[in-house]
């Protein structure tokens, strides 16, 4: 039996996540049936669920992957770039973010799965916000966790507006957020 390389395993996992992201975006969590996931990934249910232990695990991996992407973007390019990218996202894709937030409110098992997956990404975001405060880029009269929560609220609000089809001038949102975070 031929040995499969780690590179092949990683590529297959990425293929599944990408296809699943499209299925969840188009049909929502409940509408993304196994048949639709198979169609979107181009793989059989056996192949999909070899990598992910059930649909909920797959959805939480997609959500964590999206979250990880935006945390990395913020840590490397800043909040403005993250907001600009969200403003240019497909509204259907943003629906995955909204469904993630809803599931975090109503599904304790999903919360546990997400917490476990987010642990590796959170330190980078915390470090980035702390650095912005320490270097005087962000205000220091409010502690950085509250600044991060505020920025997350603005980011999620922008995603909600874009997903709803609202025309939004992202540069105005960026300016308002930067003004709010700027030292007094």
Largest sheet: none
Q: Describe the global form.
A: globular
**Element pattern in H and E:** HHHHHHHHHH
As a whole number of angstroms, the C-alpha radius of gyration is: 18 Å
Average per-residue pLDDT, rounded, comes to: 91
Give start-end ranges of low-pLDDT stretches: none
Strand content: under 5%
C-alpha end-to-end distance: 65 Å
Number of strands: 0
State the helical fraction: over 70%
- Global structural class: mainly alpha
Helical segment count: 10
Summarize the model shown:
The protein has helices at 6-31, 34-41, 45-51, 55-77, 79-87, 91-106, 108-118, 122-134, 144-163, 170-181. With 184 residues, it is an all-alpha fold. The mean pLDDT is 91.
Summary keywords:
184 residues, 10 helices, 79% helix, mainly alpha
Walk me through this protein's architecture.
- It is a single chain.
- With 184 residues, the chain is mainly α.
- The chain contains ten helices and no strands.
- The protein has helices at residues 6-31, 34-41, 45-51, 55-77, 79-87, 91-106, 108-118, 122-134, 144-163, 170-181.
- The radius of gyration is 18 Å and the shape is globular.
Write the layout of secondary structure elements.
Blueprint: H1 6-31, H2 34-41, H3 45-51, H4 55-77, H5 79-87, H6 91-106, H7 108-118, H8 122-134, H9 144-163, H10 170-181
């Amino acid at each position: 039996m031929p040995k499969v390389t780690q590179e092949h395993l990683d590529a297959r996992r990425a293929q599944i996540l990408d296809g699943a992201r499209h299925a969840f975006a188009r049909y929502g969590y409940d509408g993304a049936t196994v048949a639709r996931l198979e169609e979107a990934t181009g793989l059989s249910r056996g192949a999909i669920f070899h990598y992910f232990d059930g649909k909920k695990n797959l959805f939480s991996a997609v959500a964590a992957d999206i979250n990880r992407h935006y945390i990395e973007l913020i840590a490397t390019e800043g909040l403005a770039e993250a907001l600009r990218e969200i403003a240019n996202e497909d509204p259907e894709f943003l629906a995955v973010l909204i469904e993630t937030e809803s599931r975090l409110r109503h599904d304790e098992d999903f919360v546990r799965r997400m917490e476990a997956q987010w642990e590796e990404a959170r330190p980078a975001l915390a470090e980035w916000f702390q650095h912005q405060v320490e270097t005087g880029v962000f205000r220091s009269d409010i502690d950085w966790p509250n600044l991060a929560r505020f920025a997350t609220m603005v980011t999620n609000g922008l995603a909600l507006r874009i997903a709803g089809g609202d025309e939004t001038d992202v540069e105005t949102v960026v300016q308002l957020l930067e003004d709010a975070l700027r030292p007094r």
